[in-house]
UniProtKB/TrEMBL annotation:
InterPro entries the record matches: RNaseH_sf, Transposase-MT_Hybrid, Transposase_1
Protein name: Histone-lysine N-methyltransferase SETMAR
Species name: Plakobranchus ocellatus
A matching Pfam family: Transposase_1
GO MF: nucleic acid binding
Length: 116
């Protein structure tokens, strides 16, 4: 999930059982770039900054090359940190309001609810 102060920009959930490697992560970044162009057109003219941890898809050579190509910057978040990323905190209230009292029968129903 990618979001900014205005809300969710992209929800990219890999198929069940599929792991996220650098190729998959760069595909998600491509989707994010296109979603930003549609939903936040002025943002691409300014500096785009991502925050992610040191997971291997985030630090892979292919990912670093992608980020350099589009001049996106990274704010690091220490690996295995017990602290929340500062950007996570504003997401919890909207998630609670969106999911409050709902019961989903399975993962597909939950994902569908977010996409609607």
């Amino acid at each position: 999930m990618f979001w900014d102060s205005l809300g969710i920009i992209l929800l990219d959930i890999p198929p069940k059982g599929e792991s996220v490697d650098a190729d998959r992560y760069c595909e998600a970044l491509d989707q994010l770039r296109h979603a930003v162009r549609r939903k936040r057109p002025g943002l691409l003219r300014s500096r785009v900054v991502l925050q992610h941890d040191n997971a291997s898809p985030h630090t892979a050579k292919r990912t670093k090359e992608w980020l350099e190509r589009y001049r996106w910057d990274i704010i690091p978040h220490p690996a295995h940190s017990p602290d929340l990323a500062p950007s996570d905190v504003p997401l919890f209230g909207p998630l609670r309001r969106h999911l409050g009292g709902k019961k989903c029968e399975n993962e597909d129903e939950l994902i569908g609810d977010f996409r609607d």
